[in-house]
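Sequence design from tokenized structure. All designs in this work follow the same two-part layout: the structure record, then the generated sequence. An example of the structure record is given first.
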């Protein structure tokens, strides 16, 4: 049966041009399993997972020095003179600048500079280590209003800076705003379908603790005083909580992308929290539970055992603190909850759903207040600090700020009209790496960036590189010239790691190397006509 079953029209109108020269890695694994593995065959048995592993290793090894590299990226060099290495980068084959005619001009790596980790030193040139840091929370005193703070999250709320919700059964005048450097939560009650309650709100901020081992959370809080009666509604004492969480309050997800807060669906409508006969602390309608009135969402353990600070008995500007171990953690969130339980005054305890009351707007709000939030480090990691925030050393900054040596006429005389063999005199001892004006580069493996010399700013640069060919499904294929090398490599790898066929290992090792050598010759793409054309040029008379 023929391998080509499609029509010419399908090929030429498709987008899979030239793919017949390749075979997929999956096909190689399947064919190896059929032909090489089984009873009365060289490999009596082998798990498919083992075959797949050795096939991937063989493909990676062949990609480094046998298979042709076709991966490349082109950029305009920015003023920073930096290019980020591709995500699947293993090594470069060539870096070139492109002139106005579209011709590549090879760039060469500089050998006489680098970009080391520059250690921060004090005035006495002593090393500087992390010292205890203070005020890790930005705008923790709310002097800049609501700057650096966020709200909403999976349980979306419309209260902020006095914006009144429009529509819905809970037309509430709730506000979250800063007044006299205090964060204020103003809550109103509402009635809907015989249930009474209020919205629960939150604010939060992301905090960088990458260089910190432990932190101290401090806050001043005021809990609204309860027992204010209006329109037959009594409000309980305000519930105000401040704590540290690993879950991103904007999404409800853990750092690894898994669900961190249950029962949080950002796709559900913005329903208010409502009290029930069994839970006067309101939960949301339609099974949408607000995390903003549930203490269990503070699921990051503190050193004291109580994961959050709470004001719930009408306290007035009371200071509280808590400590957390954050060693090995890069990011946490300081998370604030605010809620007021509202109940019918006629029957406040136990609460009875459906109690008749006047569904009038409660214009006199209950207010929870945060005066200040601080997070201070109590123990630093003790790591050395970088002298420059951008990660560049003064060595590299000095290099890229000057004309590179390969085109510095003060160091290497004039290049007359870009002719590198001068018309007058001799230039003995010229370094070949400096006999060009294309520019230079340095690859900083620590930062994963390519740094270019100053004359490259704004130029077009092409990076040709190799990968291990184990990225996408489209990349995981092998040229048919190297197909036999893949089979021999897989077979040798399986036999050499088995206990039943060690006597065959030397034979398969030789066959593997022979197949790889044959693949290299085939892929070298040497054409007799092209070699002949080059040799004809050798008979020219050399003139200067």
């Amino acid at each position: 049966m023929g391998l080509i079953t499609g029509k010419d029209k399908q090929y030429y109108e498709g987008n899979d041009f030239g793919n017949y020269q390749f075979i997929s890695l999956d096909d190689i694994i399947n064919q190896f399993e059929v032909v090489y593995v089984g009873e009365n065959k060289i490999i009596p048995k082998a798990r498919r997972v083992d075959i797949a592993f050795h096939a991937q290793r063989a493909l990676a090894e062949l990609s480094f020095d046998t298979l042709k590299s076709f991966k490349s990226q082109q950029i305009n060099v920015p003023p920073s003179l930096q290019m980020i290495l591709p995500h699947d980068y293993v090594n470069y084959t060539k870096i070139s600048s492109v002139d106005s005619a579209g011709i590549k001009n090879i760039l060469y790596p500089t050998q006489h500079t680098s970009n080391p980790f520059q250690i921060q030193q004090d005035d006495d040139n002593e090393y500087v280590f992390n010292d205890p840091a203070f005020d890790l929370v930005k705008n923790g005193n709310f002097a800049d209003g609501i700057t650096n703070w966020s709200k909403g999250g999976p349980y979306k709320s419309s209260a902020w800076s006095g914006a009144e919700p429009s529509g819905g059964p809970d037309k509430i005048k709730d506000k979250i705003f800063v007044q006299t450097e205090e964060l204020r939560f103003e809550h109103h009650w509402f009635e809907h379908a015989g249930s009474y309650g209020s919205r629960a709100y939150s604010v939060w901020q992301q905090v960088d603790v990458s260089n910190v081992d432990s932190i101290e959370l401090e806050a001043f809080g005021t809990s609204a005083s309860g027992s204010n009666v209006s329109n037959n509604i009594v409000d309980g004492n305000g519930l105000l909580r401040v704590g540290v969480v690993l879950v991103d309050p904007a999404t409800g997800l853990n750092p690894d992308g898994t669900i961190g807060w249950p029962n949080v669906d950002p796709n559900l409508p913005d329903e208010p929290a409502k009290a029930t006969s069994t839970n006067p602390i309101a939960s949301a309608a339609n099974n949408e539970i607000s995390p903003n009135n549930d203490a269990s969402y503070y699921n990051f353990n503190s050193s004291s055992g109580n994961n959050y600070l709470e004001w719930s008995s009408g306290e007035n500007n009371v200071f509280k603190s808590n400590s957390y171990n954050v060693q090995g953690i890069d990011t946490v969130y300081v998370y604030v909850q605010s809620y007021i339980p509202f109940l019918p005054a006629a029957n406040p305890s136990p609460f009875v759903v459906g109690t008749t009351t006047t569904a009038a707007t409660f214009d006199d709000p209950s207010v929870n207040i945060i005066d200040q939030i601080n997070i201070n480090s109590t123990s630093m990691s003790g790591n050395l600090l970088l002298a420059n925030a951008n990660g560049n050393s003064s060595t590299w900054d000095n290099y890229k700020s000057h004309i590179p040596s390969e085109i510095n006429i003060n160091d290497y005389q004039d290049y007359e009209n870009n002719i590198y063999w001068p018309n007058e005199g001799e230039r003995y001892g010229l370094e070949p790496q400096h006999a060009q004006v294309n520019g230079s580069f340095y690859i900083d493996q620590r930062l994963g960036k390519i740094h270019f010399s100053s004359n490259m700013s704004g130029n077009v640069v092409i990076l040709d590189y190799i990968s291990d060919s184990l990225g996408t499904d489209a990349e995981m294929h092998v040229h048919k010239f190297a197909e036999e090398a893949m089979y021999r490599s897989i077979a040798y790898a399986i036999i050499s790691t088995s206990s039943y066929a060690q006597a065959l290992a030397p034979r398969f090792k030789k066959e593997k190397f022979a197949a790889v050598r044959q693949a290299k010759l085939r892929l070298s793409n040497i054409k007799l006509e092209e070699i002949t054309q080059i040799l004809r040029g050798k008979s020219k008379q050399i003139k200067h």
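The longest helix spans residues 505-523. We note this feature because it recurs in several other targets discussed in the main text.
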